[in-house]
Specification:
6-stranded mixed β-sheet, Beta-lactamase, alpha+beta, Penicillin-binding protein 2a (Domain 2), 608 residues, 2 domains
Amino acid sequence: MDRFATRKNIIVLIILVVSAGLVMRLFYLQVIDTSYKLSAENNSKRIEILYPARGLIYDRNHELLVYNQPVYDLMIAPFELQAFDSTELCEILKIDLERLRSGIQRVRNPRYRREPFIKQISPETYAVLQEKMYKFPGFYVRSRTLRKYNREIAAHLLGYVGEVDEKLIASDNYYVMGDYIGVSGIEGYYEAALRGEKGQEVLLVDVHGRVQGPFQDGRFDRDAVVGRDLECTIDAELQEYGEKLMKTYKGSIVAIEPSTGEILTLISAPTYEPSLLVGRTRTENYIKLEKDTLEPLFNRALMANYPPGSTFKPVHALIGLQEGVISRNSTFSCTQGFYARGVSVGCHVHKSPLNLIEGIQNSCNAYFCNVFRNIIDNPDYNNVTEAYNSWRDYVMAFGFGNSLNADFINELNGFIAPTFYYDHYYGENRWNALTIISLAIGQGEILTTPLQMANLAATIANKGYYYIPHTVRNIAGIDTIENRFTERRVIPVDTANFSIVAEGMDLAVNGGTGSTARIAYISDIKVCGKTGTAQNPQGRDHSVFIAFAPKEEPRIAIAVYVEHGEWGASYAAPIASLMIEKYLKGSVDPGRKWLEATMLSRNLLSEQ
């Protein structure tokens, strides 16, 4: 009997324990754990993303450059599909039956989500489709926008928009598969301002995924916020004119407003039409452009590293003056070159001896070899390494050797060799000014970008300071641009020294038939300029020119590179002068139309 009672008690205890466990589990599921509730809610609602239109882009004169055009993605809700006339749908979409079948099969899972079937349907196709959507149950249209251009210009500066990839989604949870993002240029750098904010529409669905209406009367809906409009710094007329001038050349033009650092034009040639990288043919066009041997996707203005050639001589003049190793009256002789201890650097025929201003005017190689030698052999320094590092610090203060930190994603640094470079190559304490004398004329271990050279012209125009070059002057709803674009970057060289160099650059253009840049002369505009020839080991040398104008109160500073153009006066100087005249006067004087016609008629691309 006792044994029976014991068994009974054990069974009762087990029942009580199990019951208590079930009660506790039930309490946990209903009160504490919300996962099932969330799962139930998720099964009863669907979130549709509302995509905002990107902000518009205007030029400095408020001409609309980039706007939006509507496009439509055709979506499929697989569980809502019913029998429909597949032939008629294929005719509207201009696809074959096989593509329709494979597309439907591809989006079968997950069952309750709308998935893209065909992206970026044109407005014309959408207009026909919309009238007949009732015939195709299970198909829906999602509205999007694509970029459209008033002028086919400034592709490298404006940049383009592309679809996000998995790597980007992993790094930024704002984006999901199917979203678009600015990839380069203004579109890329100012993506956060241009993209706006996505909205959402929360819909109530039944167990079969069919929409029953707004979820909880739309209390969780959120409107999309349109992106901010941008006013960029470029002058559309000048940009278009520059691209016309460079149509048959490889190279670049960068023009800057010295008083602000605003980029007036940024041209990389050859270029491409920005509309090619928009819409359903974007990928196909990108592949074609990428394979083009002329490299139209390569932004030479920011990414091409060239030796500056003689356009770098003003930097050496400024450093020499500041270091006190020369004065404006310092003279050096030139017998068609520089010769010392077996080292020789050739030069062209001109008067001799020359003072500093005449050295700049005539672009004398011998003069600047002597200036550079004086800088590196300066007895105020303990050794060559110390003197060279001082020289390098000056050069980098001008913005060389590092990115200027402009508002671009892909700006390169250029190269100014550190001392360990020479120590490694020649041996420590086994090199001197003559070893590296090619630096004196902007050759050797020195590489710059066209943007950096335009910034040099702006710095000389400002007599000793620059603003970081930038492409946007105003963002709607934001009071100011980034502070770094409004801060002066002061060069550690006395203002008076810049006036001396500017005088030499003035005479290089306006000083008569012996001037190396005489071709850039404009009768009623005082242009200060400097020609250069950038050595090219893979063919003919490059034609280079930097300038600013007018001499008093400069409004434009410019750098022009024409690859394989040889002498600076052959191509770069005349193109720069035409750009300056176009910007300052609005048109080219009839008396200089011959020069414009000459530049437009030549074709260096056909010779490469």
